[in-house]
Amino acid sequence: MVIINKNTNVIVQGITGHQGAFHSGEMIKFGTKVVAGVSPGKGNTEINHVKVFNTVSETLGYEPYASMISVPAPYVKDAALEAIDNGIKLIYILTEHVPVHDTMEIAHQARRKNVMLIGPNSPGITVVNESKIGIMPNHIFKKGNVAIASRSGTLTYEIVKAVTDSGFGETTVVGLGGDPIIGTTFSDIIKIYNEDEQTKQIVLVGEIGGGEEEKAAAYIKKYVKKPVVGYITGRSAPPGKRMGHAGAIIEKGVGTAESKINAFKDAGIKVADYPDDIPGLLQKL
Amino acid sequence: MVIINKNTNVIVQGITGHQGAFHSGEMIKFGTKVVAGVSPGKGNTEINHVKVFNTVSETLGYEPYASMISVPAPYVKDAALEAIDNGIKLIYILTEHVPVHDTMEIAHQARRKNVMLIGPNSPGITVVNESKIGIMPNHIFKKGNVAIASRSGTLTYEIVKAVTDSGFGETTVVGLGGDPIIGTTFSDIIKIYNEDEQTKQIVLVGEIGGGEEEKAAAYIKKYVKKPVVGYITGRSAPPGKRMGHAGAIIEKGVGTAESKINAFKDAGIKVADYPDDIPGLLQKL
Amino acid sequence: MNLYEYMGKEIFKKYGIPVPGGYVIDNVNELKKYEEPVAIKSQILSGKRGKAGGIKFAKSNDELVNYSKELLSSKINNLTVNKLLIERMINIKKEIYLSITLDRSSKEPIIIMSSEGGMDIESVPEDKIYKIYIDPLIGYSDYIAREALAYLSVENKKQFSSLLRSLYNAFVNEDAMLMEINPLIIDNDNNIIAGDSKVIIDDNSLFRHDEYKIKDTDKTELENEAANKSFTFIEMGGNIGVIANGAGLTMATLDALTLHKLKPRNFLDLGGTDDIEIVEDAFSFVLKAKPEIIFVNIFGGVTKADTVANGIVSSKNKFNIKQNIIVRLSGIHEEEGRKILLNNGIKAFPDMNDAIKAISKIYEVN
Amino acid sequence: MNLYEYMGKEIFKKYGIPVPGGYVIDNVNELKKYEEPVAIKSQILSGKRGKAGGIKFAKSNDELVNYSKELLSSKINNLTVNKLLIERMINIKKEIYLSITLDRSSKEPIIIMSSEGGMDIESVPEDKIYKIYIDPLIGYSDYIAREALAYLSVENKKQFSSLLRSLYNAFVNEDAMLMEINPLIIDNDNNIIAGDSKVIIDDNSLFRHDEYKIKDTDKTELENEAANKSFTFIEMGGNIGVIANGAGLTMATLDALTLHKLKPRNFLDLGGTDDIEIVEDAFSFVLKAKPEIIFVNIFGGVTKADTVANGIVSSKNKFNIKQNIIVRLSGIHEEEGRKILLNNGIKAFPDMNDAIKAISKIYEVN
User: Fold this and answer.
1) Does residue B4 form part of some domain?
2) Per residue in C50-89, pLDDT tens?
3) Is some CB atom of chain C closer than 8 A to the CB atom of B277?
4) Closest chain B residue to D304, measured at CA
5) Does a structural domain hold residue D191?
6) In a domain? residue A1
7) Where would you tag: which of B280, C87, C233, D152 has the fewest CB atoms within 10 A of its CB?
8) Chain D interface disruption, residue of C135, C137, C172, C208, most D CBs within 10 A
9) What percent of chain A has pLDDT over 90?
10) Is residue B124, in this structure, part of any structural domain at all?
11) Whole-prediction pTM
12) Does B138 contact D at CB distance below 8 Å?
């Protein structure tokens, strides 16, 4: 498996918030090693039997590798810089509505310090039977051989469940995030999935906006032998409108569903018209 | 030999200035491959038979590896960022009086982009019989086995000449620069000299201010088997005074000559009392 | 949020970027006395304004008054003109394209330039477009203007350099997603002047920009109202009202309807909720759009399917909904949810395609 | 350049860092009427001002006037007091040490803190000092204050956080090499107030800080005069005037003299020059310091030895120098140079130690 496993030590920045508290509890139920929480001003408390500190620095005794950031959007940049400065190597940002200039800075600092960044505005990462960082529902997963990456939340859960119900099961599911600028993109994740031995086939759930699906398709065409199934939302979206996700927008003719679907098809990716079609396009191996 | 050789392509930013014009001519006489010059607004001219361009970007056809920056202090940061952004891998800054906040930013960006930075306020680097970038007088060198690093200019020339006259000769001489914050420091250069096969012994010419001599001494004590001779200027300097170099200052008790000399002695470095004593301390190998 | 030309130019002025002298009016009574030839520019958020007749040139007081009367309250590209920008005419020696936007792939600001100013940048061939990426950890430095000037031929290099720095500062400080000057005019005296402005501010940055807390007028009234309730609601022009959860699933729902030749009336993302009142709020917006049928498409993950079912039932009763409500309900607590709906006479399917087929059937029958 | 306390506090005020209410006087006539207990603080660039009697506390108008009279024009730590800062007394609950300076090794700004305020930081044990490094490409972010507060016990965390951000902004924007607040006072109402200021601005940044183009008064008159001529001239208190080229060689010259138990009068770096007039300027400064002997130590690299020799001869004639001039001349054109000097009756050596021995001999003979 990839990115995280059952031994990955995770802290949650914003653990005392509504989302942080609920989802850290769910993560622990999933089996994730949540070793500490951070919540400025709430140090010396406890939540879900996890100790809470004022700073990331104070959690370093727990040797955290990853941090889930679930703080209000205006504070995300500060929290992410804090995590990077303290040597965290995987940062996942749940928060929606992070200013895009903040994300640019976070993404560049993460790259500079060799930190993997997932999100913002992402449902997180799940490695089945190992560890989950994020908000995907625990019950939809079953260990299998399909790796999934998506820019959505609920649509991902739906597809995961369909893959589970159809008997294939998953290795890893990553929600990349719905913002125009995100850390890990399709072209990053496809390399990881391609190298993961347990992953036998791959599902990419893209949407309008940007050109990362096209870049991933070019990589797949060149390097990926594993079967890939693709799906793109936003075929019916009018140009210039942000379709719920800040990143789901056709701008100056760039980012159309058509362009992405064509790139997928050109790379030999089987493209589903409806999300329900995805399990049917997976191969019995 | 190390850092540069006779095939190193060098550009000069500020080549049409007084210093840039004179010293690029001297460098060419030394044998340095000065492939292009940069001087905003002076594009399409020529100096020392070298073509001048408005931007570093326009020189990329010459595949420059190193840049000598000799522009007025207020423009050094811009010139250095331009060089780094255009993929230059070795930047030498001649200019004195660069604001230290500018140097900090240059040094960090250089480190981020794996660029070797020498200076500011440095006489440059000379690899004997190979290439010279900087302002050291051509006539003082003779190929030999001594590598020299120094925070000074004229004092370095004097020591180089003494080493030459005494028959040892040099492999490489680097002027690190007299500013409080500089790119390559003693602790960086000692590793390079230690690994250079042609270098059989090393001379370090330090001065008051900072703690780089001490750091280098600690490294030498642990890793360096080659004989090292050291000299420290500023023994008689009053605390709190900048002794000509912006970096030559004892602040809050840190950076005394005593501390450096003790660290040198503790590392087994032979310490000269007078610059003239240095050749006598070198070993006949 | 998209800013009107005059608002973008106010930002330009604040950062020292030259713009033509001018003023804004809502009303012809606000017109100043004619003194020199002026352009009368409809303030609408639409490209190709000129071609659609939204810009007029006046060479007398009569023309100024008459054209202004003509334009105010008229519809240009289907948008009502509420404001005019009256601007001194600039003599034009050359027109350049200049913008700073976000490059999603490099995650950096990117400066885009072309000597082909005045045209849509989409229609300019790639080899006439020049791009410079800016490292956000380093920001702008003057060499960037020198590199730009190696490509663009501009006489007044010093003014251009200062303008580019100002535009970059404005882009960063104002949290812009786009700052476009098209055309950037070079006049006969080699002065450089911003002929137009297109500025998009990041909606997510508004917590640090009180000055932009204005009505975002490229949205319809209903879209704005929904935005104030934190719903993303987009009018689509069809007849099937849509409520779904998650932006991805909502887009997938619209796509599926469209593939079945059905026409969605709207995009409405219910979000991740477990609150009956929010379901009711969603219905109230969709009803305002007067759909013929309402399609609810829910996958229960964090959101529980039975809660949504209860919300649908209570909405139906509260708003006395006469339209057909077709529901697809899947995920956590789906069976309880479907049962609640069926007990209240609402058709509920576990499968999205089956639900859409049911909608198709209604239209075939009609 | 080192700023006086009152100037540092003006910067603090500009950045919103609280300082005690107060005013500055050059003259007792400028004293305001006594209203509450005040501290009268001599404005000199010297540590341990209080211990040396440079700070007095007045509890009446008489005390205010008398102490002010007493301090103004007095000498504290050998420095003349030209200005007084009259400041409202602060009740002190706790004193903290806080500074931002440059860390030469990491090439970063560093925040240094200690709960042991009010003492010289050099005398505080390492384990009571807390340091935070700031990445200059990222700058300050609020978590830094939180990390600081995990170490320092401060009630008013919000005010501390805002103060630390302000101090960092001031440090960067003003091109400081040091901004020290010692003590940072916490009063009985938990307000945080800068009790003192020590600010050093980078001399090399003054081209972008017109506001600091003032007389740098920790230099002597002669040092200032030399600085205006772009010479580094430092008074050393001995009797042998020194002119050398290059800061390193000049320092080495002073060291060598000192090792020979000789006392240099000054540091003067001629710089890399090939101009007779500059040599004459250097002599004119050294002569103002009234040395007993003048030692010129030159290694000709870029600077040519014969040019310097000619400069020495012309200076001797121009200024009618009576003192012994001992010259060590080496490097490019050294033989020509020494010949010129000998022809003019000036002793010239190729070797530095020989030259110094010659000086020693003069003193032995005397």
Assistant:
1) no
2) 889 999 999 999 999 999 999 999 999 888 999 999 999 9
3) no
4) B137
5) yes
6) no
7) B280
8) C137
9) 97
10) no
11) 0.95
12) no
Domain shared by B108 and B146, yes or no: no
Residues forming beta bridges with residue D79, ordered by sequence position: D76
pLDDT at B285 over 70: no
B131 within domain boundaries: no
Give the chain D residue nearest B107 (alpha carbons).
D107
| D347 and D270, same domain (yes or no) | yes
CATH of the domain at C351: 3.40.50.261
Report residue D153: phi and psi, to 5°: -95, 110
In angstroms, the separation between the Cα of residue C165 and the nearest Cα of chain D is: 17
D216: in domain = no
D305 with D342, same domain: the answer is yes
Lowest mean pLDDT among B1-5, C8-12, C293-297: B1-5
C:D CB pairs within 8 Å: 3
Q: Own/partner pairs for C275-278, CB < 8 Å, 24+ apart?
A: C275/C307, C275/C311, C276/C307, C276/C310, C276/C311, C276/C314, C277/C311, C278/C311
Residue of A nearest to D137 (CA): A109
Nearest to D248 among B73, B233, B238 (CB): B233
The single residue listed with the structure tokens 């042991």 is D116
Q: Which chains touch B (3 or more CB pairs under 8 A)?
A: C, D
pLDDT of residue B186: 98
Taking the CA of residue C136 and the nearest CA in chain D, the distance in Å comes to: 9
Count of C-beta atoms within a 10 Å radius of residue C44: 24
Residue-level pLDDT at D215? 59
Residue type, D303: T
State whether A262 and A166 are in the same domain.
yes
CA distance D173 to D180: 15
Q: Decide if D104 contacts D209 (C-beta within 8 A).
A: no
Residues in chain A within 8 Å Cβ distance of C256: 274
Structural domain that includes position C265: 221-365
Is D255 within a domain? yes
Ranking A2-11, B66-75, D41-50, D61-70 by mean pLDDT, the lowest is: D41-50
Pick from C176, C208, C240: which residue ends a domain? C208
Does A101 contact chain C (CB < 8 Å)?
yes
Same-domain status, A184 and A251: yes
Residue C47 has pLDDT above 90, yes or no: no
**How is residue D4 annotated by DSSP?**
P
Q: Is the domain of D104 the same as that of D124?
A: yes
- Does residue D119 sit in the same domain as residue D80? no
Measured between its terminal Cα atoms, the distance across chain A in Å is 19
Choosing from C208, C239, C269, the residue where a domain stops is C208
- Whether D97 is a known active-site residue: answer yes
Q: In this structure, are residues C38 and C88 in contact, taking their beta carbons and an 8 Å threshold? A: yes
List, for residues C233-242, the tens digit of each pLDDT value: 999 989 999 9
ipTM: 0.94
| CA atoms of A126 and A171, how far apart (whole Å) | 8
